[in-house]
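Quick one: structure tokens for this chain, please?
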Amino acid sequence: MIAVGGRLDWARDGADWPNREASRFVRAAGATWHVQRMGPPDAPTLLLAHGTAASSHSWRDPMPLLATDFDVIACDLPGHGFSEPMAHGRPSLSGMARALADLLAALEARPALLVGHSAGAALMVRMVLDRLAAPAGIVAINGALMPFDGMAGRIFSPLAKLMALNPLVPRFVSASAAERSGVERLIRNTGSTLDARGVELYRRLVADPGHVHGALAMMAHWDLDALVSDLPRLATPLLLVVGDRDEAVPPEHARRVRRLVRHATLATMKGAGHLAHEERPAEATALIRAQAGEFGLVDPPPA
């Protein structure tokens, strides 16, 4: 992997970061991770994983809501946000799953529930399939669990690999996407609409070449074909939360996953796009809490 300069600076770029009071930096798997943790330490642990090109900020509103019932952990994945790139190996799906397991060991955490958005959902499923985590259940919010169909699927990963290997590309992408209007357009293209604060946080991320390089490297090295082949082995209950206006991950993919996974169920957030948990945090949190109630992790909601 070719190193790319211009990483975000915590003192400067993180001065007003969401839930900053819950942040700390942890060494694990040979790298330094930005981690946020909040909630009662004796409560069931819940792990949140963001998607490609996002960061822990994507849980800025759900995290405090969930922290009333859970010991909640969110991190910036390797190469994203304020976390360093992977020190060993490539940011493949399995490699990142192992690195995240090392982080959990450093935190002495054993999550009872895994929640992932988009590519983060694939990471949660991979951890369970590889026996790196043993939660009661998994919640996938617009989970990117299947390869793209047609021509997009055949060129996406090779193209991302070429872009990640060229150190000039992340700088070009950052420069072209750093304007507020460009970021708003990118978000609209996912089927979502965010408030001004949400747009600004994404603008700050995509303006950083190091973050863009981390996202491209992650996309270039993921093998979702292998994950799909393994999905029928998944015995852990899986809740597939789908925004029916998602323009990034086709909602039909969730229906395919449900047919492959024996203990999978589907819940639809009507009118929500790809960033459903950011658009409607209370609704997303209620679905997560209801799933946790199914396993006795929290009290079920009143009838």
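The longest strand covers residues 31-38.
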